[in-house]
């Protein structure tokens, strides 16, 4: 008699049906656009802004001249992740699909609700700043849970992918904790996390398109 399957195992299996795999093509240029806009948004900041100290969110702060550039970076990143997620719906575990799709919408929320101004004395909307923080926290949690589920799914033959999963998880969790006491590099830490996110989702897009079919 077969042993009953644990009811939660379905979370680590792909959904049935047909995915829109060609959407992954859009993810690569969108990720590249997000990276360019992130750099451009930082360059557009006035004197006093430090990319090592100030976050990307602060370059998109409320009332910040040129803040729209970083907000467009968030939008491009979210669109890229949503494209990858929809294209991978029938190949990713359900949990990864749900979490990374949530990541995309949290990213849209981070673009819609802006961080408080970093300029001393500037007025701000505390509710909007709180909503931005909620979206940012949701992004981090959704990304990590989605990566863990993908790690479990890959199996022992996906060593390259599993190595990137582990690196991404360390970057998204351990690195911020280790550097929490050093606020002088908070902006640098966030930018490193974004770059790792670009690499992780970019690699997944290439895998979906068959470019990395032999290296899960």
Topology:
Blueprint: H1 24-43, H2 67-87, H3 94-112, H4 126-154, H5 159-178, H6 186-208
Helix pairs in contact: 1-2, 1-6, 2-3, 2-6, 3-4, 4-5, 5-6
Can you count the helices?
Answer: 6
In the predicted model, the low-confidence regions spanning at least 5 consecutive residues are none
How would you name the oligomeric state of the polypeptide chains in this document? single chain
Summed up, the domain count is 1
Element pattern in H and E: HHHHHH
Which structural class do you get from the secondary structure elements?
A: mainly alpha
Mean pLDDT: 89
Helix fraction bin: 55-70%
Biggest sheet character: none
Q: How does the overall form come out from the CA principal axes?
A: elongated
Per DSSP, what share of the residues sits in E-state strands of 2 or more residues? Answer: under 5%
C-alpha Rg, in Å?
Answer: 18 Å
Number of extended strands: 0
Ends distance: 34 Å
Question: How would you describe the overall organization of this protein?
Answer:
This protein is mostly helical. The protein has one domain (21-119, 138-208). 61% of the residues lie in helices and 0% in strands. The protein has helices spanning 24-43, 67-87, 94-112, 126-154, 159-178, 186-208. Helix 2 runs antiparallel to helix 3 (94-112), helix 3 (94-112) runs antiparallel to helix 4 and helix 5 packs antiparallel against helix 6. The model has no long low-confidence stretch (mean pLDDT 89).
């Amino acid at each position: 008699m077969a042993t009953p399957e644990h009811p939660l195992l379905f979370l680590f299996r792909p959904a049935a049906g047909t995915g829109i795999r060609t959407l992954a093509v859009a993810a690569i240029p969108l990720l590249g656009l997000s990276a360019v806009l992130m750099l451009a948004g930082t360059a557009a900041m006035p004197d006093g802004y430090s990319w090592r100290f100030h976050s990307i969110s602060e370059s998109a702060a409320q009332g910040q001249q040129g803040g729209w550039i970083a907000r467009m970076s968030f939008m491009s990143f979210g669109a890229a992740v949503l494209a990858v997620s929809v294209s991978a719906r029938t190949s990713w575990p359900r949990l990864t699909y749900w979490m990374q799709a949530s990541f995309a919408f949290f990213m849209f929320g981070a673009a819609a609700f802006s961080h408080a101004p970093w300029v001393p004395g500037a007025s701000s909307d505390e509710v909007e700043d709180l909503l931005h923080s909620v979206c940012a926290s949701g992004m981090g949690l959704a990304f990590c849970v989605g990566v863990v589920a993908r790690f479990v799914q890959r199996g022992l033959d996906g060593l390259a992918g599993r190595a990137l999963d582990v690196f991404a998880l360390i970057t998204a969790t351990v690195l911020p904790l280790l550097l929490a006491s050093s606020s002088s590099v908070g902006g640098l830490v966030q930018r490193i996390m974004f770059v790792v996110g670009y690499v992780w989702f970019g690699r997944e897009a290439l895998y979906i398109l068959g470019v990395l079919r032999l290296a899960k």
